[in-house]
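Why do we bother with a discrete structure alphabet at all? Because it lets us treat a fold like text: something you can write down, compare, and reason about line by line. To make this less abstract, here is a complete entry for ABC transporter permease subunit. Read it the way you would read a sentence in a foreign language you are learning: slowly, and without expecting to understand everything at once.
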Amino acid sequence: MLWLIAAIPAAADDTLRIGSKRFTESYILGELLAQAAAPHVRTEHKQGLGNTAIVLAALKAGEIDVYPEYTGTIALEILKHPQVPELAQMRRELAALGLGIDVPLGFNNTYALAVRGGTAGARTVGDLARQGGYRFGLSHEFIGRADGWPGLARRYGLTQPPRGLDHGIAYEALQQRQVDVIDIYSTDAKIRQYGLHVLEDDRGYFPRYDAVLLYRLDAAQRFPAAWQALRRLQGRIPAGDMIAMNAAAEIDGKDFASIARAWLAVHPVAQGGAVSALPAGTARATAGGPDAALTAALPLAAKPEVASATAPPLVAKPDVAPATARARDAAASRPALAERLFADDFWPLTRQHVTLVVLSVALACLFGIPLGVLAAYVPAVRQPVMALAGVLQTIPSLALLAMLIPLMGSIGTGPALVALVVYALLPIVRNTCTGLAQVPDGLKLAAQALGLRAGQRLRHVELPLAMPVLLAGVKTAAVMSVGTATIAALIGAGGYGERITTGLALNDQTLLLAGAIPAAALALLVQGAFEVLEKLSRKQM
């Protein structure tokens, strides 16, 4: 038994564990790494671990050994630099954390802004400021990143308030004309699928995001043969190939493993030559367009045509003026919790959150109480009504929101309200039915003997007697809605979820708490208010 227990960590140490973030390109790169190393070592691809903070924590804790990352993210979000420094400096700072950076893969996936292809007059980011009137739908991470919206707005003088959206929903929102401008990654397959125009960064704001491997320093020593195989990927994935692979997943619906297999069949790393030491500031480059053999292996619905000649340096030395300005834009330190808590957006977010909760609970009562009455008075429909309300509550919130957007043709408050009403129905329907069923038969007969009609008995006798139980159900629905309403921020409905989602994306605990604390306080306030109402209803009985 002891030898069996001792063998468990040994088996784990024999496995090269590769992580990936929760977006298409990271999934594909993770599969490429796993399959490239597989001939030399047992591999495990831990897919979609989460955002930068979660995957980085897994790397530091030894849960994974390596994952694909980007130089801009490493410099600005992990090492907290105001701009991307030289590779040698990043290596020194990462080494202090027990981590290393290596194997530039050959493409730059930086941020950019995009508009619909037919948008007149907008060709550069500067045009957005000069013309005005554009509606921005930006990912929560981009809104909160040091190198994202805050610095971009200052650099270009953009005064329009952005709407926070989940990145996957933003393309649909742009197509349906709910927003006019979204943030994109430069290797997104959907740029061509939706016919978008990528705006020129005419003031040189966005830093480079060259794809590299971020790894534990002991990984190369523990898996020398596998590591050499991974290093043969250096400079061999041009932007065109990456766009083609992203399109194969997002447009053609191919699975990540088969996409990686097709690329490796065209570019076998096992036959690659020895890899030289990584230069201080450059990566070996290949043609930017998609490889012809790869295009044949991945027959895409939309084949990208990328016109770049070679992959640029891993860490390009930007012009002095833009780099200095970017450092000035992004160098502000994070404020304290109290300052974040009562920032300028506190009252607008509170108004949005309270509006969502009040309207959703009111609408849930409008539908739920009659359904509860029907279930109480018609036993034949009681189980179907309860079952339907229960099934609706089990639908995952993100899935429900994603389904409602195309059905309603909009984002924001509308779909969020429908989702919140759906989740609030069960406690209201159930408690209405239970409260009415608990009214003593003697009181019902007495009301009938007094000549009261069915509607009068319900309004003047049964509902007042059932009110404490009914209010308990409404209280449960309201408190649940306060928490569930935070998810609505993913589709641009606002509320405290704006802070929570941005804080999660940026690993900013202060911002996360600045959203969670008001939501918790509002839930307590709602619960207290309903308890007072319950006491008053009992006194009137």
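What the structure line is telling us, in plain words: Residues 38 and 226 are 8 Å apart (CA to CA). The longest helix spans residues 346-377.
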